[in-house]
From TrEMBL:
Involved in formation and maintenance of cell shape. InterPro entries: Cell/Rod_1, Cell/Rod_MreC_2, MreC, MreC_beta-barrel_core. This is Cell shape-determining protein MreC. Belongs to the MreC family. Residues 68-95 form a coiled coil. Residues 122-271 form the Rod shape-determining protein MreC beta-barrel core domain. Residues 282-291, 301-323 have a biased composition (Polar residues). Keywords: Cell shape, Coiled coil. GO terms for cellular component: plasma membrane. GO terms for biological process: regulation of cell shape. Residues 282-323 are annotated as: Disordered. Transmembrane segments: none annotated. The keyword Aminoacyl-tRNA synthetase does not apply.
Amino acid sequence: MKNFFRSTGFKILLGAVVILLGVLIYTQSVGNSLIANLINFVSSPMQSVSTSAKENAASALEPLTDDPEALKEKIAALEEENQEYRKQLVDYYDCQRKVAQYESILGIKEKNADFQLVSASVIGRDPNDVFYSFSIDIGYLDGVSQNDPVITGDGLVGWVSQAYATTSKVTTILSENTQIGAAAKQRRESGVISCELRLADEGLVKLGFLDANTKIEPGDIITTTGLSGLFPKDLLIGSVTELGHEEYDVSKYALVQPYVDVKNVMDVFVVTDFYGKGEISVTTDSASSEGADSAKKTKTGDSTSSQPDASDPDGSSQDPEGE
C-alpha cells in the first residue's frame, strides 16, 4: 500500500484531481458567465443571418407600402413594357419566317430562273374539306391567276382554283379533281397523278395508267411532265411507296408520297409565270398526261377552259390559256 502512494500513477491521479477541483472552484466564483459566453459564441452567427434576412424582407416589401397611385403607375409601366416585348417577339418570328421564305425563293430560282414567284401564307382551312384545300393571303391584285401552280421549296402543293382580289383558294394535289401529267424520269415512264378520298386520308396520291410491265420501283422520284403548259416541267411531286394492279384493266399504278405535307403547310409560293406556260407539247408516250392536265383544269371551273376535240388527238384546237 505504501508503494502505491509513492508510485507515479498515484501522483498523476492526484494532480488530475487537484486541477478538476480548481476548475470547479473557478466556475463557482464567476457564476454562469463562462457557459453564457460559450452559448453566445455559438449562436452569434445565427443571429447575424436572421437580422440580415429581416432587413432584406423589409427592403423587398418596401414598395408595397408606397402610395397606391404610385403602385398603379408602376404596374401600368410594367404592362406597357411587356406589350413592347411581345411585339418584338412577334416581329422576330415574322422576320424568321420571311428569312425562311427568302431562302426557299433563292433555292427555287437557282434551279428555275424562269419562274415568277409570289410568296403567300395560309390564312384559313376548311375543317369540312376532306381534300385539304386552303386559303392564302394574296389574290389577283398581287398578280395571281386561276390555275397558277402553288409550290414550296420541297415540291408541288396544288393550284389556285379561285382567285379573288386579295385572297385565293388553293386546291391541293390530294383533291379528287387532281389530274396531273407526271413521270419517273429515271425510268422514262409517265402516267397521271390523281387522288381519291381513301388516299387523301393517308396523304398519298396515285400515279396511274402505267404499263403492265412498268419498271417503276418504290423510291423512284416522280415529277411533273409540263407537257400541257399548266405546270412547269420537273416540279417535284413525291416518291413511289408501292405498286399495284388496276382493278378493271391490266395496267398498273404506283402510290406516291408527296414531298410536301399539304395538310399542314403554312407558307407557299404561287408561280405566276414560267417558261412554256400555256404551251402544249405532245409526245407519243405522254399524250394521256397532257389530256389529264387539261381535264383537271376543266374540272376546276376555268371559265376559258375547253377539252381537246376527240377528232383532234394532238389537242391543237385547245385554247392554251385555258387547258
